[in-house]
Every structure is written in structure tokens, then in C-alpha cells.
Write a structure and sequence with these properties.
The complex is a heterodimer. Chain A is α/β, with parallel strands linked by helices. Chain A has 17 helices and ten strands. Chain A has helices spanning 9-26, 45-50, 58-67, 71-80, 89-99, 125-137, 156-178, 184-206, 221-224, 226-229, 236-254, 284-293, 321-331, 338-351, 366-369, 372-383, 402-422, and strands at 35-38, 54-56, 115-120, 141-145, 260-261, 264-265, 271-276, 296-301, 356-362, 386-392. Chain A starts with 8 loop residues before the first helix and ends with a helix. In chain B, strands 2-1-3-4 form a four-stranded parallel β-sheet. Classes of the chains: A alpha/beta, B alpha/beta. At the A-B interface, helix 6, strand 4, helix 7, helix 14 and helix 15 of A face helix 5, helix 6 and helix 13 of B.
Chain lengths: 423, 386
Amino acid sequence: MNAEVQKEESMVLQKKMIGEHFETLSKSAENGRKVVYTFVPGNLNELILAFDLLPVHPEVNALQSGMRKLSGDYIQEAEKQGHSEDVCTYVKCDIGMLKKGNIGPTGEKLPPPDLLLLSYTGCFTFMKWFELLKQEYGCPVVMLQVPYQAEGKITASQREFVARQLRDVVVPALEEVSGKKLDEDRLKELLASSARAEDDLVYVWESAKHKPSPIDAYFGGVYYIGPIFTAFRGLPSCEAYYRELRREVDFRIAHGMGPTTPEGELRQQKYRIVVEGPPNWTSFRDFWKIFHDEGVVMVASTYTKVGGLYEQGFRHDPARPFETLAEYCLGCYTNRNLPARVDIIAKYVEEYEADGILFNSIKSCNSFSAGQLMMLRELEKRTGKAGAFIESDLVDPRYFSAANIKNRLESYFQMLEAKRQAA
Amino acid sequence: MGTQDIIDRCERIYRDLDFGYVHEWKARTGGKAVGFMPVYVPRELIHAAGILPVGIMGGGDDVEIIRGDAYFQSYICHIPRSTVELGLAGKLDVLDGMLFPAICDVIRNLSGMWQMMFAHKYVRYLDFPQTFNDAGREFYRAEMAELLVDLEALSGIQATPERLNASIALYNANRRALAELYDLRSAEPQRVPTSELYLLLRAGNVLEVSEHTAMLQQYLAAARLSQRPLRDNVRVVATGLFCEQPPLSMVRAMENSGCYIVDDDWVLGARYQLHDTATGANPLGAIVDAYMSDTVATATRYVEGDDKGAFLVEQVRSRNAEGVIFAAASFCDPALLDRPMGQKALADAGIPYTAFTYSENTGQVQVIKEQAGTFADSIKLWGAVA
């Protein structure tokens, strides 16, 4: 673990972008910039940027705190304040960070929100999270309710419901906090830029169909989604990032190279796995290393689709700004019903020629985790591929048992090997 | 009929996980039955389509989980395990469909599991508005209209405005009887033991509404004549129990700990609306209006304004309660995430509280009894413990 961590150029670029965003946030008051807290899934970044507002994503703060080993203390602080051990650790990490001075993951103080934009998409906890933050900050909240795709498709009534809220409720709230009227042409420019970045991201995801795969679509993938799922979608810097990422991927394809991992390039790829569920952030590198050491590459993952399933064809459409934003919110992965999620994963297994399916069941996240064992059974039946099931948490280090997870995964890989030998 | 005979029947219904009453009702009427999960569904719509609404609130402490555990991870509440167990054991075969209201991600995802496990049955996830404006109202109206079409197709009975009005009137009568029961318990708690009230509510999950209302009225008449001594108990409100239901043994333990529970939120769907739903030319609109603007505040419902916790504080004051017991099912996201906000509101109002978690199959109720008893003692001795 002492070896120097190897990173791709795009990872360095992404880190720089995020660092600069936190710096901008820390200076927002002196620069007269207003701040909107909102959530990642189905976020309205283009709309926020159209008002020249600065977005903050509490989940991103929490996962960054997890990767920097700060989350454990924050969570315990929140529990001392009366928050239950049983609930989402993103929420507790955020509350604990606030109670300890709201120092962001890069060491700079985060500004308080001028508005809480409660994009209620795919996760019940979001609603309670912003009810809690409203009490802490005493600022206004605007709710955007996004109905669940219970029948596996977006209905006209759902689309109209979301679009109408955007027009009648969200835009007026953003106008009030920013002091500006909506410039629809500016919004359309931002949406067009998003679509170009989305094209490049899809190219990157689909590159994993190559053998060897030039990307790791889970551990590497969480870096790849950073700009597009957060504060940058719609900006030229986001487009530039995905152009660079695509260039790197093309280079690796041309040279038969695997993805760069913290332990070096993963060229010898023994098993190709599809992953369902978020990663553990507190032991991210240890977790990744378990797979690296076994020659496992993740060829597709569902977590990297929480902000949008672009490979299914969705692109932000500047010609229909409100409808396209509604469809984006409705389409994120955790807003899909379980049969649709099974269909998505089964398709990944087939298209990416995967050897198996891994479920990382997250204690904190019932939106992902409830029903995953049923999905696993269904997928094994449909694809004939073996599944593995492990349990951990997002940012609570008490729930990452490295030895147990390693043992279970080693047994799983042995089973995959035995199946391969028998075939 | 005395209270004991009524309560004995309620307990038989509560313990009957084969849903004998539903079998018997279907055989007698030739009608269909549709199950629903907590917290709230508009039962008037189901009833108007000639269907028996059946509240499915898990298996309690009477069902052994054999297959249900294999479908869920370690860290999750108990109600989906026991509900899946009931489903896989064939206990819910008597139901012609299942409704899963939008209350949390577990029940939401359970709807998808049900779609896969029981593909031949009618399954619907009911999305409720969390935004209480015109857009939310229109969305909810469309949801309810679609539900009604589904139910009519299932039963073959058209829910005409006349039928809807008749069903609304029956449920209004039921809600009034329940309100009377709660008022009597609050005014004279010795006449309505909470364990009896709880069983009466649970019976309402299964019984046809007219039959349940008649039962409540019989009980009320008998309870008013009962001679039970008033104990020197502390008056408390119990909150957080709106989804996974406590086992009867836990309710009895709380009651025997020195507490009179004078309000609560279990089986909340039966009392979700605060007043009568209007009857008239637009019954569907009236059902929508009732949901939008005339309900209790609970953790599964978004609070737009600054009055988070105000409903709970008002509940304490209107019932002349001396404290609050937060009892949440383990891993219940809505109840546990909401709890700090409720506690803050109580602390600001100077109302004492205590908190614990349980599960529907909690066997060790002694600890809960001791905690509730200590809470009651502390209020008696010092007036406040928060």
C-alpha cells in the first residue's frame, strides 16, 4: 500500500476541477455568488448554472470525506446529536461535518445554502435529509418531486408533472434566490453542451466491450462520472474533460492496454464482472485492490448510472428544455423499478460478455439494496452467470470488514474458475 | 356482547395469518380482495369497485421466517421479510392484487419484488404527491383515476359516483367511530385499554368496513359501561409505529409499565384523514382533496413549512399528555430520520420524551417495559426528563 498511486491524466484533471469548485465555493460570499444545495441523481445542473448559481452536492461531500478518512468522526458526531445508527451514513456524515464547522473535503469552509433544491429522485432519504438541513440552516427549500418508474417506463402524466413543477415552482424559486430572470437561450446552450459530453461518456462506457477492457467501469468509473454528475455538466470544462477521457481510452484500445489502477495497469484481465450497488468509500483503494490482485475488471456498473443512463439513448435536448430535464430526472437508475434494473444488468452481462455479477449491498442505501438478493436470483436464472453478494457501507468505516469481504470474494473467484474449467 | 368477546374475536383475526375472514368473505360475496401495505391507501376506491381492501402489515411475531430472510440483506427492517414469507408460503394467495404505497424505498422496492415473484397477480405501486400544490393535485388525481380503472377491470364492477359516495360515507362513519374510540381512551383511559384499542384497529385491516364500524360501536357501548379502576399512570403519546407494527406483547408491556397511551400512530391509514371526506358530484375529487389538505402529519409525508414537529406537539397538548415515546422499527428510515426533528420540537416545547427501537417479532419486551416504566417514573418524580 506504500507504492505510489498511479492515476490517469483524466483523473488528475478531474481532481483539479473539483478542487477549483470547492475553492470557488469557499469564496462565494466575497464574490457575491449564491449557493444551491442539491442532490446528484437527476440533478438540474444546467438550470442552476443558467442562473449563475453554485451547486453543492452533499453526497459528494460525504463520499469525499469518506475517501479522506474523515467520515467516521463526522458520523459519530451526528450520532452523539441523536441520529440513529440505523440510518443513511451520508446524512450523518453531512450533519456531523456541519456540526464540526462545515469544513469541506478539501479543507476549505463550505458556504451555507441560499436555497435547498430538493430534487426528490430515486431516494426517500433525500426528503428527510433536506428537512433536517432546513432546520440547521433556516433557508428556503424548493421541492421537485420526481415520480417513480413503477411500471418500467415514463408516462406522459409523470413527465408533465415534473415539467410543470420546473416551470411553476423551481424556476421561480431560482429566480428569487438569484435575482435574475431565466434566460432560456442560455439554458439551451448549457443543455447542448451537456449532450456533447454525454456522447463522449457513452463512448467511454461502451469501450469496455473491448478485450482487454481499457476502462474499469466501476472503480475507475466513479472518477469518470465526477464532472458530468456534479457541478460541471453544461460547461466547456466538462466537454473538455470527456474529450480528454475519450482520447485516453482510444490510446489504450489502440495499444491493447487495460485501465490504470492504483496498483498499476490491469492488462491481464482474468474475469469480467458487472457490478450493482455503490462502492465503499472509506476503504476504496483496499476494495479495488482485492479485484486488481485477482485480475478482475469491472466492465459495467449500475452505480455509475445514478445520474443518468445515457447508453440507453437519453441526451439532454435543448429543443425541449423542461421536458428533457424532466426525463433526465425520471430516468436515473434508482428511479427504475426492480424488473427494469434486472433487465439493465442482464443486458450488460450479455453485451459486455461478463463472467459474473457482483452485488455490493450497502447498509445505508435501501434504494439500491432492498431487493438486491431477489435481483441476484433472477439474474442468475436469466444469464446463467454466477453472482456474488457482499455487504458494506458508503462512508461508515465500521461496516467495512476487509477480511470477510476478501474471503467471500476469493471463494467467488474460485467458483468462477471452477465453472470456467468445467465449461 | 361484552368487550372481552369483541376483543377475543379481534385477537383471533389478528393471529389468523391464513386470512380466514377474507376467504369466507370472498366465498360469501363472490368478490375480489386486494391487499395493501402501510401507511395509507384510499380504501374508498377499492371498496367502491366491490373489492375487499385488506391491510397487510407483516407477519408479526407469529410467523417463522424460513424463506423471507434469503431475499434481504442484513440491515433492513423486518416487515418485508415477513411479508415475503407470507407470500411465498401461499398465505396471501387469497388476495387478487397488492398495493404498495410510496412511503419508503423498502416498500417501493418490495413492489418490484412482488412484480417478479407474483407476475400473475395485479401489483401496483401507488405514488403519492409530496408537493401539495396544483401540480401535485393533478398528478394524484391522475394516479387515482388510473387505479380506479385497474380496480374496475379486476372486479368487473364500475365504481360509479353513486358507489363512490356510498363507500366514502361508510369510511367516514368508520373514521368517526375510531375518533370516538380514541377520544374515549384519552378521556377515560381505564375504559379502553390500549391493547384492546390496538386489536380493534388491527381487525379493521381485514373486516369489511360496515362490519368493523358496527364492531367499534358495540365495543364503545360496552366500554362505557365497564368498571375498571383508574391507575396512577402517566399519559403518553406513542409515535413512530406507522409502518412495521409492534407485536401485541410489546403494546401490553408499554401499557403495563405505568403509561396510559393516549394517542399513537399505529395502523395510521385508518385515521390518516382528520375529517370526513365530502360526498357529492365529484367523489374522486373529494378523495384527492382529503389527501392533499386534511391529514395527519407523519414521517412519510413531506412538511413544506417551518412547522416540523408541530403536529406532534399539538397531539401531546390536545390529549393532555405528559410525554412522548418514540418507538421506531429498527432500520425504519422514515421514523428514524424524522425522530431528531420531532425530538427538537418537543424539547423546544418542554415536553419530555424517550426513544427505543423494536421489530415486529421482538420477543424481549421486558427491556421495553423497563424503559417505558423508568420514563413514566421520571415524569412522576421530576416532571420532565428530556
